[in-house]
Each structure stands twice: as structure tokens, then as C-alpha cells.
Amino acid sequence: MARRSKGVRSGATSYARTALGQLAGLFRGTAAARRRRAITTLVGIVGALTLARAVEDPVLSDEILFTARQFFGSARPAG
Fold first, then answer.
1. If DSSP codes are grouped into helix, strand and coil, which group holds residue 3?
2. What is the dihedral of CA 50, 37, 73, 2, to 10 degrees?
3. Are 8 and 15 in contact (CB under 8 A)?
4. Distance between CA 51 and CA 36 in Å, rounded?
5. Each residue of 6-56: pLDDT tens digit?
6. Is 28 helix (H, G, I), strand (E, B) or coil?
7. DSSP class of 21
8. Are residues 33 and 27 in contact, defined by beta-carbon separation less than 8 angstroms?
9. What does the angle CA 8 – CA 14 – CA 18 come to, to the nearest 5 degrees?
10. Domains of the chain: which residue ranges?
11. E strands along 1-79, which residues?
12. What is the rounded CA–CA span in Å between residue 10 and residue 6?
């Protein structure tokens, strides 16, 4: 992605900003704490998907996705 065109990177930036805003709304705490948690969650999800797609072992791929869902899917809506 880093070596792609400006348009591709612009689209990725827009996606990241939108996703971070949506994720931050799911967490409690200060705005800064919600933002940090949103960033941590997004990079974890993206990393899990990337790794699950990269490995050739379907059992390992499923295990990666299952574990990521367990860990990152534990967010509770604020309120």
C-alpha cells in the first residue's frame, strides 16, 4: 500500500479515519483513550485478516480469525 498511487493511499486514509471514528464510538473513556483503543483495534483486525489470508493452512487461518474475534470483538457499546 505504501508504494501505491496517491489516490489509493488517499482512499486508505479516508477509510482509516472513518473506521477509527466508528470504533472510537464503541469505547468508554476520554477521547484520547477511545482513539488509542480504536487504533489498537483496527490495526489488530487488519493484521489478523492479513495473516489469516497469507497462511496456507486453513486450520491455522481459522484459528487466527477466531482468536482475533474473541479478543477484538469484546468491545461493548458506550452508554
1. coil
2. -10
3. no
4. 22
5. 899 999 999 999 999 999 999 999 999 999 999 999 999 999 999 999 999
6. coil
7. H
8. yes
9. 145
10. 6-72
11. none
12. 6
